[in-house]
Design goal:
Layout: E1 4-5, E2 11-12
Antiparallel strand pairs: 1-2
Length: about 20
Protein backbone atom coordinates (compact mmCIF):
# COMPACT_ATOMS: atom_id res chain seq x y z
CA UNK A 1 0.00 0.00 0.00
CA UNK A 2 0.97 3.62 -0.30
CA UNK A 3 2.20 5.71 2.57
CA UNK A 4 -0.68 6.89 4.69
CA UNK A 5 -1.00 9.08 7.77
CA UNK A 6 -1.54 7.46 11.12
CA UNK A 7 -4.28 8.61 13.46
CA UNK A 8 -1.51 10.24 15.47
CA UNK A 9 -0.49 12.23 12.44
CA UNK A 10 2.66 10.30 11.60
CA UNK A 11 3.62 8.94 8.24
CA UNK A 12 3.27 5.20 7.96
CA UNK A 13 5.07 3.86 4.92
CA UNK A 14 3.96 0.36 3.92
CA UNK A 15 5.45 -2.08 6.41
CA UNK A 16 8.39 0.11 7.30
CA UNK A 17 6.98 1.39 10.56
CA UNK A 18 4.25 -0.84 11.84
CA UNK A 19 3.02 0.27 15.23
CA UNK A 20 6.05 2.21 16.39
CA UNK A 21 4.88 4.03 19.44
Amino acid sequence: EKNRINKDGELVISSTKTRTQ
